[in-house]
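Supplementary Methods, section 5.1.

A reviewer requested that the exact input to the structure prediction be made available. We therefore reproduce it here, unchanged from the version used in the analyses.
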Amino acid sequence: MHSVATETLTPHTVRFDGAVKLKAISVIGGGDPSKSPSKMKVWVNREDVDFAAAERMPPVQEWELQPENVGGVLEYPTQVAKFSGVHALDVLFTGNFGAEITEIHFVGLKGEFSECIIFMPGAWIVKWNALDPSVHILLFRSPTAPDRSFPSERIQH
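The structure derived from this sequence is encoded token-by-token as follows.
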């Protein structure tokens, strides 16, 4: 991601298919440390944060970021009590360390994912195993869902 002729990036929404207890966020900025974002603001379960909303709503948490995070080893811990049951995360990066534009190469989220069942009309219903998130079990296919053939009802990713 990078901004166009400004230090502020467009707010981004990350949606989860279940409840997440978010414990930390890692951000790797631009190759040039001056292009790395200097602040990160986060809202939980909103999905409607744009520039105007970000101005009037206080974030759930905000961080002062470091200019360098080579390899993503630096993590910014969350106030876990405020980040339990997260289904959507709105993230806004503002400012940088002196460049005209801001660049982000990676955003990592660390936490725990809870088991869930998803249902959308015209879609697949899939259950995730919380103990092994790589295992998905196909429960039902709606008649209007796209036709896909799976080798078995147990899907490995």
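The CA atoms of residues 24 and 77 lie 4 Å apart. These observations are discussed further in the main text.
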